[in-house]
Give the backbone structure.
Amino acid sequence: MVTKRSGATEPFSRDKVIAGVRKACQGRPVTDADLALLAQQVEETLRSTGAASIDAQEIGLAILDPLKELDQVAFMRFASVYQAWDSLDDFNRAIEELRG
């Protein structure tokens, strides 16, 4: 189960993970099969915690690493929205981490 910010709970959905990441991958060389694999990796990561319920925030965090491996531009897009970057310094830090 996923606990949303509002406190409501709902079942985990790979489709929601794919939909969220698909927006970041728009125009990038990422296939539906790539997105399905990413969603599977995220679900496996979350299930490995053994928790019966997980915060929606943790799903976003679980998406970041596999997305970074899949496509760095899509990662930057997703992370900038997910982590609410509000300055060029935020982007520069992320770019430096990717280069390192």
Notes: The radius of gyration is 14 Å.
